[in-house]
Model the fold of this input.
Amino acid sequence: MLLVAVAGSASAEQPARTGAKLTWVRGAGAERCVGNFGEPDTELLEGAPPAISLEEFRECMSLAPAREIKPGEYWVRHPEGDPWFVAAWKPPGHILLSTSYTHHRFLRNLADMFDQGLAIATNFGARLSEEGAVERSRHGISTSYWSRRAATCPSK
Amino acid sequence: MEPKGRYLSFQVNAWQATIGKLDAESKAPLEYPLGSLDWVSELLIFQVHPDVAVSMDTIERQLERQVQRTRAERVNPDAIALLDADNAKALVKVKHRSDGGWQVWPWHGHAPFSRVAHAVMDAASCIRAETGGEIRFWNRSFDEQLRQEMQPRLDGLSVDFFGLMQSGFSST
Done:
């Protein structure tokens, strides 16, 4: 089981931002999935259970205060009523949570998204981790960050 | 997640840099990321082409009176910020251009889009009431019909408004 959280990335050529992202992944094909967002983390994939099916994800999201924007992608509202994060199922069977840096309540959204990610990952028997980000802006911010938060989710 | 740890510090810095970018480069937020994108070019810019010249002092005073629950602050000789009267959060930027016109657009990153957007539209209308002339919005006249059409659409999210603009709302 694997849950991967990917923080935003941007390059000098493409300064458009990516919001903080949280993904959870289980099983077969997960390495390829993680490769979509950054370096594959084979350590986190060890012993991963079967992939999360779209049907499982939909069942999970049916309980959430969320609107399905397109098949397998939901806009989730925070319990306080305003926008929180995007939850999207990605083939072959992982889920990406993504929250916007431009939301005026980003810090609340980020912290609460982590908690929610842990809860959902636990429900799926998935693992939680976080991949890093490289940010270079024209405002003098040049930060490079890379971390993984493997095994922060208790697996069933 | 350590409150003063490296991870949260990175996220706070990234968030502050992004909000700064919205301000410095006139970008609009998307409350829900669209793929990898969570900001776009500003959508809600009004240009007031005045019939008569009106002083900054008058406009500042009228904005504070006419735009609900706001207070005006002169941020430089030709620019006014409208702040939420309850919590001092920035909502609207007003610029008196060198050609005599007035530009009104959002100050994003501190309040929900609906709060900002209504204040922006009301500020443009307030200035137009003082100066006469015409409000322009995306190369078309912002007349009463367009105002009526747009008003309910400002109650939603910026990301929804962006979708409306993309689907041709601006050319209706």
Notes: The CA atoms of residues 118 and 154 of chain B lie 6 Å apart.
